[in-house]
User: What shape does this take?
Amino acid sequence: MATTAIWDVTDRLDRVIDYVTNPNKTEKLDFSSPDFQGLQKVLDYTQQDAKTERQFYVTGINCDPVTTCEQMSRIKLQFQKTDGILAFHGYQAFAPGEATPETAHAIGVKLAQELWGDRFEVVVSTHRDKQHLHNHFVLNSVSFMDGKRYYDNKATYALMRQTSDRLCREYCLSVIENPKRGKTKHYAEWKAEKEGKPTWRGQIREDVDSMIAASMTFTQFISTLRKQGYEVKTGVKYMAVRPPGKERFVRLKTLGDDYTEEAIKQRILQNRSPKREQILPEPKRKRYILKGSFKTVKKITGLQALYFQYLYKMGILPRKRASSKRTHFLLREDLRHLGEITAQTKLLCAHHISSKEQLFTYQSAAEQEMSRLYADRKALYNRIRRCKDDEQVTAYKEQIAGLSKKLSLLRKEVKLCTGILSRSEEMKRKLLQVRQEEIQHGKEEKTYEQRSRRSGPNRKYEF
Assistant: This one.
C-alpha cells in the first residue's frame, strides 16, 4: 500500500535542493545564488546519509544528484523562467514492513521515469528514518526539452496515483482500493493534534461546536459567530469564516463532514433548547500572611509585566473571579506554544530581566560563556588525543561531559532570549488588537442596551 502526494516549491530553489541533498549528510553543494537556495535545501534533505544509503537509495534522472541544483538552475536561466514555481516536491509512502528499501527505491525510480523522465530532471531518494519507507521526488518545474513548465493538477495527480498503484501491484504490494477524498490534513495540523497541541483549525471547530449548541436558528448561529469576532461569508457556494487576526477565510466544509452548511443546519435543528456556556465556579480562596509592606515590593514592569499580562489574557494565570468570556482566538492559538512561553517567563523572572537592554546584556554574557566553554572542551579533546593514561582519559571525558551539560543549558537560554525578542513585539500587537476589539464590543453593547431601553414599551408588539 503506497500513498502519494505532490506540492510546489515557490520560495527559493535551494530550499528544495537542501531538503533532498543535505550537505551535512552527503557531500556539500556550493551553489550560493539566493534565487535558488530553497531548492538546494530540499535536495539536501532528501539525500541525507542518516535517511538513505547514497550509493543505493539516491538516483538522478536526467541529472547528477551531486550537481542537481546547478543543473536545474541552468535550465531555468536558459529558458528565462526563474520565477514562480521553482520545483515540485513529491512523496510516496509505503505501509510499514511491506517493502524493502531496494524495492521501494526501484518503484520510486520507475514511477519518476514513467511520469517525468522524458522531459524533466528528477531526483529520487528513499528514506528509512521512519517506521515506514518513503520516497521523495524533486522535479524541476521547467523541462530541459522545450522549456515548458510542468503543471500539477487533478489529472496529473490522478496519473501519479494510478501509476503508483500499478507498480505496487507489479511488486505484489497492497493498494488502497477505495481511497477517501477530502479527509487529508496538513502535516502541521496532524502533528500538532498527535502531540495534543491546539491548532487554529481545531479552535474554529470548537467555536463552531459551541455556537451550534447555543443556537436555536441558523441566523442566531451566524450572529453569534460575528459577535465572537468572526467574519462570515454567506450566500456563496461554500460558507466561509475568517477568525480574528487571520488573513484568509476558511471554508467550513473543509473542517469535516459535520461542518457543511447543511450539516450545521441539521445539528441546530436537533437542539431542543440552547445550551449556554458553563461558568466555572469561583475557586476557593486561600489565606496567606504577608510579611513586609506592599510599598516596599518592586512593581513588575517591562518584559516581565508583558508576559504576565499575556498569560493572564490566555487564561493561564488565575483570574480574580470566574468569567464567562472566551479567551480571544489570537491568544488561544498560542496555547500550542505554552511550554515555550512559560520557559521564557521563568527566564525573565529568574534573572530579573525587565528591559530589552537587560536581555541583550544577559544574552551576550551567555554567549561569551559558551565561547569559553567551547574553548575549554576543545582543549580537553586535544589532551585526550595526546594522553596515554586511561585513568586520565576517563577524567578528561567526565570534564567534557560536565562542560557539554553546561553548554546545553546555555544554548537553551540563548534560544529563549532570541525567542523573547521576537515574541514580545508580537505579544504587544495581539494584546493591542484584543484591547481595541474589547473596547469596540463594549461600545456596541452599550449602544444596543440604550436602543433596547428606548424601544422597551413597544416590545409587546414584536413577534
